[in-house]
Amino acid sequence: MLKQFNQALSQKEKSLKQLYVLINELGPISKSDLIVHTGLTQTTCSRLIEELIDLHLIIENGFGESSGGRKPHLYEIKADTHHLFGIDISRTYTKVLLMDLRFNIKAEARLKMDKTSTPDVTIHFIEEKIKDMLREHRLETRDILGVGIGAIGPLDRQRGMILNPVDFPSPGWVDVPINDILSERLGFDVVIDYGVNTALLAEYKNELFKSYKNVVYVIKGVGNRSSIILDGRLARGSDKLGMYGQGHMVVDIHGRKCICGGYGCVHAYSSMSAIKKDVIDSLKLGKDSILNDWINNIEDIQFEDICQAVNENDPLCCQIIKDAGYYAGVGLSNLITVLQPDLVILSGPTYTHMDLFYDTVTELASKRSKVIYPDHTITFSKGNLGENATAIGAGGMVLSYFLE
Length: 404
What we know:
Elements: H1 11-26, E1 29-30, H2 31-38, H3 42-54, E2 58-63, E3 73-77, E4 83-89, E5 93-100, E6 105-112, H4 119-136, E7 144-151, E8 155-156, E9 161-162, H5 178-186, E10 190-194, H6 195-204, E11 215-220, E12 224-230, E13 233-234, H7 267-270, H8 272-284, H9 291-294, H10 303-311, H11 315-339, E14 343-347, H12 349-352, H13 355-372, E15 379-381, H14 389-403
Parallel strand pairs: 4-7, 7-10, 11-14, 14-15
Antiparallel strand pairs: 1-3, 2-3, 4-5, 5-6, 8-9, 11-12, 12-13
Keywords: Carbohydrate metabolism, Xylose metabolism
Pfam family, one: ROK
Function: Transcriptional repressor of xylose-utilizing enzymes.
């Protein structure tokens, strides 16, 4: 029945869907509260609730507070009626999650992306891991609601294609019809969106963040991606933004040349590649660092090495990170000035692997925003879902596909 909710429905089926959507969003919830939200009569609501229970879509889950009589039954969706897959395709890894309808993770697999991670290799990994998870959990095709993908851009979301991502570690990622390929091989519905959008949606639906109406989400790693919720709604934007994403706000008009061809972009100062280049250039100039003790060839230094050096208070790496954080903080404060969010979530390796970078950025952005909006309080967070946010949100997109 759940798979039919996105088809043409009778009036009764529309009422069933309305109840299910409310129970999914607000549950555990009592029948009296459902009547208030829907305007249904008590008799009709009771009959529809019983039908949803018979269809194994919802279950009773405890009792609510009594208002003088019996305690009311509470209802929530049956989480294992169907399962869904969420996939995160980024420049650093591809992750596959198997989840129930409450987004509890039942299985996961991760592929490190490198120069061998062509579309064929990556899609084969996704296909095989999904098949392994189905076998391990004894699930059939009919048990799966669908597959959601959160990917780097640019995308053609309507046609389900990854177009031509910049700085991807392997060749071949041009006009890849990933939705059609996976749908044909697996037999599931497949939907795709930008990974930063799915990550934001996952975090936003988290209980701790439900009270915020205006949210900015930033992923900073190899590239810079941003997503925005305004007045409780995701501003999805256009696929026409191009391959460079949203990390190209100018913070120094006479500054460094960026990969986009412009000068002084945030990306040119605070991306993983920019930070790595600054460290290597400094070491070539003879500056001291504990990295010299760890690595024989300076050119072999990886971003993870720099993170470790920062977390061990290496003076050179700490200063470079503070400088990078300054430019990222200026860019973020500009974003805050325009959008005036209540909550800013900062994710990606530069934020999550080094507290120094996160603290530098948030301190500067907070100070600058207070000058312009002294009475406006902004909450900064690294989020609650960590590396899984994008894949969880991608799975949530599948459920929304049937319930919208």
